[in-house]
Prior knowledge:
Two copies of one chain form a homodimer. The longest helix of chain A has 22 residues, at 107-128. The first copy, chain A, has eleven helices and ten strands. In chain A, 43% of the residues lie in helices and 17% in strands. An eight-stranded parallel beta barrel of chain A has the order 1-2-3-4-5-6-7-10, surrounded by six helices. In chain A, strands 8-9 form a two-stranded antiparallel ribbon. Chain A is an alpha/beta fold. Chains A and B meet through helix 5 of A and helix 5 of B.
Amino acid sequence: xxxxxxxxxxxxxxxxxxxxxxxxxxxxxxxxxxxxxxxxxxxxxxxxxxxxxxxxxxxxxxxxxxxxxxxxxxxxxxxxxxxxxxxxxxxxxxxxxxxxxxxxxxxxxxxxxxxxxxxxxxxxxxxxxxxxxxxxxxxxxxxxxxxxxxxxxxxxxxxxxxxxxxxxxxxxxxxxxxxxxxxxxxxxxxxxxxxxxxxxxxxxxxxxxxxxxxxxxxxxxxxxxxxxxxxxxxxxxxxxxxxxxxxxxxxxxxxxxxxxxxxxxxxxxx
Amino acid sequence: xxxxxxxxxxxxxxxxxxxxxxxxxxxxxxxxxxxxxxxxxxxxxxxxxxxxxxxxxxxxxxxxxxxxxxxxxxxxxxxxxxxxxxxxxxxxxxxxxxxxxxxxxxxxxxxxxxxxxxxxxxxxxxxxxxxxxxxxxxxxxxxxxxxxxxxxxxxxxxxxxxxxxxxxxxxxxxxxxxxxxxxxxxxxxxxxxxxxxxxxxxxxxxxxxxxxxxxxxxxxxxxxxxxxxxxxxxxxxxxxxxxxxxxxxxxxxxxxxxxxxxxxxxxxxx
Lengths: 270, 270
């Protein structure tokens, strides 16, 4: 069982809301943790955002996101993301690796660049006390978005670095199909820095990025992954993060109520 | 290097052609092997198909396909597929496992049914001298088409059965993202029963099934997988199998010429 008090609303789930409005919505719904996105953070400004978050008494479960190491200006942008993560006292900076450079088929080379890019961030992350969470995206995003395509690969990458600084993100949408997933999560232990929930609904829409469903509305059995996250010793907040045009078009309060119902049903069935 | 003489045209690549027409097209192009689909085989009839294949001097690299073990009538249909494979003297019967039953989230249960379904086929396969090739589909098809979602999972499943009867299919489209793929292919050794090629092109179309590209037109580096297939000792035919509406709409002779060019370029670059 993961208690409903550990629910964090990832801001992407209520994409239409500004950060101040998302903070207010969390407070209104009795949610005490939020996952923040950098584009919305930039609109509000880091100092004002921190003031609003503190006034609301919200924990920041993650900052989304850094990475995209195969892009030219990645390092400078990631240093800025580290500073923002520290300023918000967020639990983790989520790293999505980026895909293949346009026209390239050099997957091994892209993966090497990701490893080098993370290595270049680790010293500054340690100075700031920021934790980096490597997120493997579903393999269907390997070419264009994230060459880190499996949880096992993300974990092997994290294990090259100090365990208090570099860990992994467990995201049910990206990982649910992986027969090796639960065992790998257990093995990750204290390297599990984040646990994110959404469901897989078929058929996927034309834009595969937006195919996520409310927890409980799709094909995923959350129990094996949740059991493994608990066994790994993870005690942090658990985010619901849903990218879905239809859900984005719904009233935020309705979406949040559904998030709370889905979370409670899935996280207390173990 | 894999010689061009080992190219097999999987019939799905020229979907508009009947089996007799596909056979003629192979002969016209100097291709000496074909992968046959059961729907087209049924139109022609097994005996007539065998006569035409022999007259043309074509090898049959695979029969596509059996499996779908999570459906109610799977066993009887798979027994029929075994008989057809034997009658055509095809190298392998390709097994695609089937997805989750409608409304189900019991992935572990579905996978157990697949294992049971294969076990039930093995005695008859051995009597007939038919080899069963388990194909892991890309994880994006896990819910609705194939719960065997990684090459490692397919191999572990095959390894429960005699090595001369149950093996695995290496398909670049489904496997290319997997960092563990090449090592697992090497480990599979004589269990590699088939090698199938197509490329991954982004963005995928709305129907993800139809997103495959001609070899060389997408994001895949074929060398690591080809090297591993060679190291595994595989000496059979190598199929090009492409599902793509645009390619299906092109003249078959044009498609086949492009298949031959792509195959030769990719298979002789090692």
